């Protein structure tokens, strides 16, 4: 009798142990299936991923590709050899959902700017995320949208960003930033009312030099308030010619020279205040043979002579102010008028792509992350 009771007790103990093991495993397998399904739905018809590895506390996507839609200037909107998510597993139960890090490695990202100045990246991702949410009932969808999510850091390593800008020419002007590394720290979804720290570094290879670009600071994504610094160092003028001299009315061709620039931009209540410094080094322009050709409203020959007199270096300190919500206000046009007023003061610069375009790009990345997380 005692032996029978002992056997029953042992069987109960084994049953409890099996339940404690099998039930969590079954739940975990369900979670794994849901995660994989969500990722595939979010990527949509233009996206693909060769492998999704879901481990305890991490999700790794291998060889991710998001093809560009019809009319996109590049064949791929984004591709990455690996995307890794480090998940705080306790947060899946206790809430809010907490990602310690999202790491994107060996990547390519194409960014398009339309003729009216709108910046787009990761096209289609937002639409597919909404469609994926629409498959759930409305209450479930609303609850998911309101769900608090914290991301400590998003990092981009060993990659390149390619800009296609239709606001300066058609077909779009192309600028490639190589060895591009970026971090986005402290993302609090869905409110986005706290400061998010941003940084980006990369190189721009020109016909004669390889220059460096940096951009960093903080931004409150919800209201667009920000304080950032952007720098260019040793960048070939010819590489950025459409943003620089041509924008200010230069007709003569640029054949050499580099640019150094620093812009400190502050945005508060959609008003921008952006003091900066521009230095053009060893600028060379060619004579076209046409005596009527000008360089920033000055005859080309006189401009060439002025460059020699100034020891081939021209420095400009400038300040840009305006309301970003005013459709009549344009950073580039405002600055171009100042530059064209006198050769001695400037030889042309447009910081629109630095002071505002970079911010649009980072905001776009933030929106894409919101969609990927199901916001």
TrEMBL record:
- Per the UniProt entry, the signal peptide is none
Q: Which GO terms describe its cellular component?
A: plasma membrane
Which InterPro entries does its entry note?
AsmA-related, DUF748
Protein known as: AsmA family protein
Query: What is an annotated GO biological process for this record, any one?
Result: regulation of protein targeting to membrane
Which PANTHER family does this one have? DUF748 DOMAIN-CONTAINING PROTEIN
Q: Which UniProt keywords apply?
A: Membrane, Transmembrane, Transmembrane helix
Membrane-spanning segments: 12-31
Against Pfam families, the record matches this protein to: DUF748
